[in-house]
């Protein structure tokens, strides 16, 4: 039986379907790839999910890489996305990719993420390193 606040394949599919507006990829295949890794201790993929949405991140030993952040449409623009990011560990830097056209870029800039480089229609951003 599915536990409350357990991340499902459908959660990831909904996320990636929305992201396909910025790039051309198969959202179901991408979601399946990520999902295979979740619950596999070797992948070190962690997540937080609550009634407003979820964040998936990977422990890369010296940093955490945020793979997806999703807030259900009815709860957007009320600070829940920022709240989920604020609940991530602070013992190491955070990094992520965001498509250059995704308005989420403003959120990450507001939260102190800095653009390191641009590649494949996306910015690589980091927070928690002195640049
Ligand atoms: C990005 C997202 C998680 C933000 O969640 P949220 O709870 O609305 O965020 P907050 O209320 O803390 O902050 C609002 C910020 O969201 C961003 N935002 C607003 N509408 C958005 C949209 N349709 N898509 C993406 N980001 C959006 C803006 O940066 C906004 O900041 P601003 O008010 O300074 O412009 C949410 O919009 C979402 O789930 N989008 C779809 C998935 C996605 O694009 N995730 C990010 C992938 S890197």
Task: State the main characteristics.
131 residues; alpha+beta; Aminopeptidase; six-stranded mixed sheet; 4 helices; 6 strands; binds coenzyme A
Write the layout of secondary structure elements.
Layout: H1 9-19, H2 27-37, E1 45-49, E2 53-59, E3 64-71, H3 80-86, E4 94-99, H4 104-110, E5 114-119, E6 122-127
Parallel strand pairs: 3-4
Antiparallel strand pairs: 1-2, 2-3, 4-6, 5-6
Helix pairs in contact: 1-2
The structure holds coenzyme A.
Residues 18, 69-71, 76-82, 98, 102-104, 106-107, 110 line the site of coenzyme A.
Tell me the strand order in the biggest sheet.
1-2-3-4-6-5
Quick one: how many beta strands?
Answer: 6
- State the share of residues found in helices, binned by percent: 25-40%
How many separate domains? 1
Q: Could you tell me the radius of gyration in angstroms?
A: 14 Å
CATH fold-level topology = Aminopeptidase
What would your notes on this structure say?
It is globular and about 45 Å long. The protein has 131 residues and is α+β, with helices and mostly antiparallel strands. It has helices spanning 9-19, 27-37, 80-86, 104-110; strands at 45-49, 53-59, 64-71, 94-99, 114-119, 122-127. It has a single domain (9-127), classed as Gcn5-related N-acetyltransferase (GNAT) (Aminopeptidase), CATH 3.40.630.30. It has a 6-stranded mixed sheet, covered by helices on one side. The longest helix is centred in the N-terminal third of the chain and has 11 residues, at 9-19. The model has no long low-confidence stretch (mean pLDDT 95). The protein binds coenzyme A (COA). Coenzyme A binds at residues 18, 69-71, 76-82, 98, 102-104, 106-107, 110.
